[in-house]
User: Which sequence fits this backbone?
C-alpha cells in the first residue's frame, strides 16, 4: 500500500478523490443521464410495493381517521400528542440535513459536498412533505385547517400569533418554500443539460423546467448571486424552524417540557438524525444506481462520518445540559418524570436512545477506515435515526404521561399512528425514487466547477491537493 | 395627562388587576363525599357524550368535572385522603389560552372566565397539553352520534337545548354553566335589576347533596362565595404556577 | 436589414477562449457585442470580460423589507382589530412578534431573490435563441455580433486561435 503511494501518489489521489479525478464534462453528463434513465425490474417491484403501502398506510388509514375521528389513534388524556407529533419533529429533523449540506457546507467551502448537495436537498423537500402530512394528521378537524391562515373574512376571525403553532405554520411554510427554491436554482443548469440530451416527453419536461437557460454570463451571474444569498439566508431559517418546533414543547407548562435549552437541543438533534439519514440515502443511491460509484466515493462517507461524530458529541452535550439541570433542581414532578423515563415501562427506549445516539457513533466513527466504509456508516446512521425517533417519543408521549395531576397519569399506546407513520416513510422513499429517475441526482456543473479548482502540486517531495478559489 | 393603553404594550399587570374577576367557586373538600352527583349533573346539563367502557378505561372520558381519589400507605395499611373534585379552574392567566392557534379558547371579558369556542376549534389539542390541571376533554369520536354510541339514542331526548352538542375533533371543558349565567343575567336585565346571589347556580353545585360546591360572584363581598373565601382557609391548587385560578378549595382538618 | 451578423464560436478550453476574446477586442468588436455561454460558471475576470451587474441583491433587500413590513403588520397592526385577551398576555407582545417578523422577513427576502433571478434572466424564455447543445458538455461558446464585412476576418482569426467551430448563429428552439 505504501509502495503504491510512493510510486504513484497521483494515482492514489485520483482514485480517492472525485475532485482530483476529472472526466470530460460530456462523459460525466452521459453517466448522470444514463443513471437517471435506467430502471431495472427491481426498481419497479419496489416502486409497486411502496405504492401499495402508501395507498394503505397513508391514504386509506388517513381517510378512515378523518371519518371516524382521532379515537382510532392512540392519543388520550394526558398524552394528547403522540406519534403524529413525533413523526412531524422527526421529518423536520431529517429535512435539516439537506440544508446543512447544501448551505452550511457551501458557506464553509467544504468541497466534498459537491456531488451530493442535490440528493440531500431532495431529502429536505420530501421530508418536509411528510412532516406536513404528519402535522395535518394530528388535527381534530383537519378540513378546517385553513382557519390558521390570516385571511380577511366577515366573521371576525384571525389566527393567534401568540401560539407556537402559528409560528410553526409561518416557519415551516418559509422553510418549505425556501428549500424548494434552493433545490431548484442549482438544478436549472442541469435541467438545461438534460434538455439538450433528451427526446420525447422527457425533453418537453426538461425544456419547461430549464426555463430557457443557456449559460450566458448574465444568467450565471444572477444564478450564482442568488445561490449565495440563499446559502447564507437559509441557515438562520433552518435554525429558526427547528427552534420554533421545539417551542411547541418549551412554551408549555409541563414538567420536562418547559426547558430553555430546547431550542438548540432540537436543532442539533435534527442535524444528528438528518446526517444519519443522508448516509443511508447516499449508500442506497450508490449501491442501486448506475455510475454513482464514480461520483459518491468512500471519501464522502468519511467526511460525513466525521461530521456525524461531532454532531453526536454536540447532541450529547445538549442532552446532558437539559438532563442535569432538571435533575439537580429537585422539583418533585420533574424528578418523577426523569425516573419514569429511565425506570418506567419505556425505560428500554430511553436507554436505546442513549446507546444509538451516543454509544454507537462514538464507538464506530472515530476509526477512519470504518468511516470510509459506506455500509458501516450507513448502519450507524440507521441506528442514529432509531435513537432520535426514540428521543422524540420520550419527549412527547412518554413525558406527557407524567404531569402535575397524578390522577390522570396514563400510558400511551399507538393505534392508527403506526400505519400512518409507515405510510409517510414509504411515501418519502417513493418520492425519492421517482425524483431519482426524473431529475439528475448529481449537480454535474458543480462537480466540474470543483474539479476545475482542484490540482495536485508538489511541495518539496510531497504531492498535495490545492484548491483555488475560483469565485 | 397621556394615558398608555397597557393592554397594547403587553403589560401583564394591567390585565391581572382586572382579572380578579366576577364568577368563582368554592369547593369544600372536607364536605365532599365522592358521590359523583356533580359529575352526573354536569354531564346531563352540558350534553356530554358517553364514551363507553373501552375508551373510558383508556383515559378518554369526557367528564368536565372529575372526583380524584387518592390513598396513602401500602396495603393493608391504606388511608383514604380527601376526595378532590377537579374541574376547569377558569384561570385568570390561563396557560391554555395563548397557545391555541385559532383563538378558540379566549378570556371572556364580560364574565371573566375562560371560554371554549366550539365552532372555532380545529383540534390541535395544545390547550389540553398546556392545562396544568388536565381538565380539558377532547371529542375523540362522535360520542353523541348513535351510530358510534348506541346508548346515546334514547339519552338524546334529555339533551339540554341551551347547550351545543359537540362533534368529533373539538375540545371542550367546564364553562361554569355559562348558559345558566346568561339566562339569569337576561332575566335580571329584563326585570331591571342585578342578579341576586343564589338566584341560580351551576349544575354541579345544584346537585351536590353535601353542599360542598358554592358558586357565585367573587367580586360581591355579600355573596356566599366571597364570604367563604374571606375566611382565609382556602387554597388554590398548583398556586406556584401563577395561573390565578377562580376555584378555591377548602381543605381543613386532617 | 442591418448588416450585422451573429457568429457562434465554440472553444473547448478556457485559455483559447480568453485569447479569442482579447483578439476580438483588437479586431474592433465591442464588449457589448460579445456574449459568453458556458456549461460551468466562468467568472468574467477569467475571460477578461467586464463585470456583470445584477439586480438580485437589491431585489433581495427589497423583498426583505416587504417581508418585515408584513410581519410588523400581522404582529402589531392586525391585533388592533381583534382585541382578544389570551393568557394574561398583552394584545401585541414584543417577544412573540419578533418570531413572526423574522420568519416573514426571511420569506420575503428569499422569495424575491428567487423571483429576481427570473426577472433578471428573463425566465422563462421559450423563444428560439442562439445556442449550441455542446455548451452543456463543457464547451465555451462565444456569441459575436459583427458587421458583415468583418465576418471572414473574424472567422479566420478565431479558427487560428483554436476554435472548434465558427458558424452562423441561428436562433433555434432550445
Assistant:
Amino acid at each position: 500500500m505504501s509502495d503504491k503511494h510512493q510510486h504513484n501518489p497521483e494515482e492514489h489521489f485520483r482514485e480517492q478523490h472525485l475532485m482530483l479525478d476529472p472526466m470530460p464534462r460530456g462523459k460525466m453528463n452521459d453517466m448522470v443521464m444514463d443513471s437517471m434513465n435506467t430502471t431495472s425490474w427491481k426498481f419497479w417491484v419496489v416502486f409497486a410495493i411502496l405504492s401499495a403501502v402508501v395507498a394503505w398506510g397513508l391514504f386509506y388509514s388517513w381517510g378512515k381517521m378523518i371519518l371516524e375521528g382521532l379515537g382510532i389513534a392512540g392519543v388520550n388524556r394526558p398524552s394528547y400528542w403522540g406519534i403524529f407529533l413525533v413523526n412531524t419533529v422527526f421529518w423536520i429533523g431529517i429535512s435539516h440535513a439537506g440544508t446543512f449540506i447544501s448551505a452550511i457546507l457551501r458557506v464553509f467551502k467544504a468541497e466534498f459536498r459537491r456531488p451530493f448537495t442535490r440528493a440531500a436537498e431532495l431529502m429536505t423537500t420530501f421530508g418536509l412533505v411528510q412532516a406536513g402530512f404528519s402535522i395535518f394528521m394530528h388535527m381534530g378537524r383537519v378540513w378546517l385547517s385553513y382557519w390558521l391562515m390570516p385571511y380577511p373574512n366577515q366573521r371576525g376571525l384571525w389566527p393567534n400569533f401568540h401560539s407556537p403553532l402559528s409560528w410553526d405554520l409561518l416557519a415551516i411554510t418559509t422553510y418549505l418554500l425556501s428549500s424548494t427554491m434552493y433545490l431548484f436554482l442549482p438544478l436549472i443548469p442541469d435541467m438545461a443539460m438534460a434538455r439538450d440530451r433528451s427526446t420525447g416527453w422527457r425533453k418537453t419536461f426538461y425544456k419547461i423546467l430549464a426555463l430557457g437557460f443557456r449559460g450566458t454570463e448574465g444568467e450565471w451571474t444572477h444564478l450564482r448571486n442568488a445561490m449565495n444569498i440563499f446559502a447564507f439566508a437559509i441557515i438562520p431559517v433552518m435554525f429558526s424552524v427547528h427552534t420554533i418546533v421545539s417551542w411547541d414543547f418549551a412554551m408549555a407548562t409541563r414538567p420536562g417540557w418547559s426547558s430553555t435549552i430546547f431550542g438548540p437541543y432540537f436543532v442539533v438533534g435534527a442535524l444528528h438524525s438528518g446526517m444519519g439519514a443522508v448516509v443511508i440515502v447516499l449508500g442506497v443511491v450508490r449501491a442501486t444506481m448506475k455510475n454513482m460509484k464514480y461520483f459518491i466515493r468512500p471519501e464522502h462517507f468519511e467526511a460525513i462520518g466525521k461530521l456525524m461524530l461531532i454532531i453526536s458529541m454536540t447532541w450529547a452535550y445538549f442532552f446532558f445540559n437539559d438532563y442535569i439541570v432538571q435533575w439537580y433542581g429537585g422539583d418533585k414532578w420533574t424528578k418523577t418524570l426523569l425516573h419514569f423515563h429511565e425506570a418506567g415501562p419505556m425505560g428500554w427506549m430511553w436507554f436505546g436512545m442513549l446507546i444509538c445516539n451516543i454509544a454507537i457513533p462514538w464507538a464506530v466513527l472515530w476509526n477512519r477506515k470504518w468511516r470510509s466504509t459506506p455500509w458501516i456508516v450507513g448502519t450507524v446512521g440507521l441506528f442514529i435515526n432509531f435513537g432520535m425517533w426514540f428521543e422524540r417519543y420520550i419527549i412527547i408521549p412518554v413525558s406527557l404521561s407524567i404531569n402535575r395531576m397524578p390522577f390522570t397519569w396514563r400510558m400511551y399506546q399507538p393505534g392508527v399512528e403506526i400505519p400512518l407513520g409507515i405510510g409517510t416513510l414509504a411515501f418519502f422513499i417513493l418520492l425519492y425514487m421517482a425524483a431519482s429517475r426524473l431529475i439528475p441526482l448529481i449537480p454535474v456543473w458543480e462537480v466540474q466547477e470543483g474539479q476545475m479548482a482542484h490540482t495536485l502540486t508538489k511541495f518539496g517531495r510531497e504531492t498535495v491537493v490545492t484548491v483555488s478559489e475560483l469565485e | 395627562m397621556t394615558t398608555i393603553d397597557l393592554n397594547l404594550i403587553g403589560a401583564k399587570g394591567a390585565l391581572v388587576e382586572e382579572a380578579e374577576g366576577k364568577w368563582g367557586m368554592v369547593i369544600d373538600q372536607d364536605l365532599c363525599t365522592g358521590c359523583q352527583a356533580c359529575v352526573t349533573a354536569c354531564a346531563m346539563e352540558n350534553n356530554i357524550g358517553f364514551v363507553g367502557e373501552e375508551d373510558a378505561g383508556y383515559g378518554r372520558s369526557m367528564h368536565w368535572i372529575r372526583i380524584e381519589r387518592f390513598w396513602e400507605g401500602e396495603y393493608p395499611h391504606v388511608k383514604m385522603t380527601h376526595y378532590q373534585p377537579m374541574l376547569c379552574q377558569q384561570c385568570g392567566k390561563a396557560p391554555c389560552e395563548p397557545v391555541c392557534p385559532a383563538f378558540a379558547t379566549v378570556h371572556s371579558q364580560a364574565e371573566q372566565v375562560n371560554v371554549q369556542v366550539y365552532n372555532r376549534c380545529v383540534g390541535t389539542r395544545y390547550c389540553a397539553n398546556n392545562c396544568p390541571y388536565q381538565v380539558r376533554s377532547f371529542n375523540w369520536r362522535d360520542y353523541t352520534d348513535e351510530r358510534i354510541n348506541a346508548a346515546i339514542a334514547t339519552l338524546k331526548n334529555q339533551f339540554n337545548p341551551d347547550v351545543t352538542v359537540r362533534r368529533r375533533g373539538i375540545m371542550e371543558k367546564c364553562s361554569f354553566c355559562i348558559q345558566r349565567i346568561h339566562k339569569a343575567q337576561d332575566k335580571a336585565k329584563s326585570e331591571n335589576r342585578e342578579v341576586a346571589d343564589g338566584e341560580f347556580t351551576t349544575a354541579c353545585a345544584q346537585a351536590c347533596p353535601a353542599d360542598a360546591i358554592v358558586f357565585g360572584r367573587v367580586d360581591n363581598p355579600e355573596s356566599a362565595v366571597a364570604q367563604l373565601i374571606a375566611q382565609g382557609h382556602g387554597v388554590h391548587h398548583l398556586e406556584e404556577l401563577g395561573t390565578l385560578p377562580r376555584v378555591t378549595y377548602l381543605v381543613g382538618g386532617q | 436589414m442591418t448588416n450585422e451578423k451573429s457568429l457562434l464560436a465554440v472553444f473547448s478550453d478556457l485559455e483559447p477562449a480568453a485569447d479569442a476574446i482579447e483578439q476580438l477586442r483588437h479586431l474592433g468588436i465591442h464588449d457589448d457585442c460579445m456574449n459568453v455561454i458556458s456549461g460551468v460558471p466562468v467568472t468574467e475576470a477569467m475571460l477578461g470580460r467586464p463585470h456583470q451587474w445584477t439586480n438580485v441583491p437589491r431585489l433581495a433587500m427589497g423583498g426583505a423589507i416587504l417581508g418585515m413590513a408584513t410581519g410588523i403588520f400581522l404582529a402589531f397592526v392586525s391585533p388592533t382589530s381583534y382585541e382578544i385577551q389570551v393568557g394574561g398576555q398583552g394584545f401585541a407582545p414584543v417577544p412573540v412578534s419578533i418570531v413572526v417578523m423574522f420568519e416573514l422577513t426571511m420569506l420575503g427576502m428569499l422569495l424575491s431573490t428567487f423571483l429576481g433571478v427570473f426577472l433578471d434572466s428573463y425566465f422563462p424564455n421559450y423563444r428560439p435563441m442562439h445556442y449550441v447543445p455542446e455548451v452543456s458538455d463543457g464547451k465555451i461558446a462565444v456569441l459575436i455580433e459583427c458587421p458583415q464585412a468583418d465576418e471572414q476576418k473574424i472567422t479566420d482569426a478565431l479558427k487560428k486561435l483554436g476554435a472548434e467551430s465558427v458558424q452562423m448563429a441561428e436562433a433555434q428552439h432550445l
About this structure: The mean pLDDT of chain A is 92.
